[in-house]
Amino acid sequence: SIERRCRARGAPSGLAMSALARRRSAPRRRNLAVAASLFALCCDVGRGEPRLMRLESLMGRLAEVGAEMETRQHRLAALSDFRSGLLSGERLPISSAQRHNLERASPLVSEVTVDVRHRPLSANTSRHFQHLRTLAIEMHVRLHTFMPLKRSSSMGSRSAGPTALLLVLGSDSAFAIFDPGVEGSPVLGPLDLGHGAGREVTLMATTSSQESHYVVTVDDANVVRVHSLRVLARRDSARGASAPQAPSASATEDETSRPLMRLNVTLNFTSEFRLPAGIVGPSGEAPAITSVLPIERGDKTFFLVGDTLGGIGVFHRNGTLKGRTRVCEDPGGVRGLVKGQSHATLFFSSHSFGFFSISQVDSQSSPCVGWNAPVVDVVMDPAAQNPRVILALADGDVIVFSTMHGKSKVCDLTLKFPHVSALPFKLQLFRGHVMGVPMVIDKSAPARQGEYLREILFFNVAAMESGYGALPSGVVTVQASFKPWQPREVALAPSPTGDRSQALVAISFEGKAGLDLYTLSLKLPTALPEAVPVVEPHFAEPDEVSGWSSLLSWFPKIGVFGVVLVGVVLWNIRKAYSSPADDEFDEEFFQEQLRKARAAEEAEKHGRAGGIG
Fold this sequence. Notes:
Radius of gyration: 38 Å
Number of helices: 14
Largest sheet: 4 strands, antiparallel
Shape: globular
């Protein structure tokens, strides 16, 4: 009460306590002096702010400074490790979270570090990519792809010429066709595809069938032109009659085993079409073609065209429109079309994917959704027990969805790839692995994304399905770097030698003319660290996928049970009605009938002979 009255009169609190102490006895004065000192410690005489709160604030600041100092110590240690790694030429193993965060600040981090949890089983590029030759040296390649060819059965499997042709489109829209097994000039071209002067070809697609060959191109004016390709392989008698030459030391098995073949390739114009007039968006804009895909249904060929308004148009081979429907409403519309199993065709937008029916010209079911970053590329895994769709997102993540569970259609997220790249991937499949090629998609800041080192990665899906443990995961099988060159586009084709464990790879690099051809093999070295688990990938050959997989997916499980049940019943009936006695009776009866037939035949012969005599 004395303190409150002193404060009301404006007197300092310390003086009030001192006055109170003088009125008391000596022992009580000492106690009150101690109380006054404690009160003066807890209260600020000038501002009235509790010093205890100031002490708590000061302790909090000291804790923050300590944490910051510890963080800086970790940074200094990491920088010291970076320096040691750079001087020794080895990559520094760091955690996934640290690498992911540091990559955002500096693209150099991806070049000098490696994910300690998902480190690759092999990083020897020359072991897995063996350089064969360089084609189209005088062309600045913009687009390229392989077109499969049918082997001639009369000439053998290893000597029937090339298994695929390499189609190349230059930066000036010049088109050329090369034989991957022959080094030199193209077998056709360079030539103009007829899009007109000043037009730039933006898309190119080919048929995947070995029977018919069509080349579809789209220019910046949304004009689609279709050309048919005819290929004849003949022996070059003039070259074959000349004296044989010894193979060089650098000659590959394909070059020495293949005979001297001459390809006769002709390109004929088939049709030209564009999207129908009158289609406009909400703001009055006309749609632009974003993707094109040729599809064969028996003896008929259709061309699917996706546009920026989310529509898919189906065109006949002569260019007439069969129908068009809108399948999505995401910004950018349909971003890509992928040929699926049986008669399914997959389409994807930035935040959805679904399946399209050509016969119905409509989507078969509701699209799958459920992710934040836009989709960049999509592939389908045909080797899985249930059909799976693998999505590459713009932030570098790769996720896997299952679309079938038994006979029911689902959309379940089943897997997520480890985040090992700040750039998104262009995906392809090869023998149970998913090949990811980093790609630049941010056109507004290409220089920043161009600073990242683009390395080709091969992910083992079976290793991801088996789960992660305390040891390195073994998910990344091969990590290939072509430094100082940066891969831009990669195309795969079957090996010309017929070895299914290998593939033919054509790579175009940024700022480099021509195409480099390699032989790809994922065979790992025999000596691997014991702490690294190796999981064999699950894959199916193309014939097996198209045959048994589709048959088993169509044949119901109750049918399999019925066939097995009928077989068991028939086996039990045979066991019940067959015994050793029955077997002997049947054999004797058969021999008796045979003797009777022979006796009758002999009697008939003797009768005819006596009549003549």
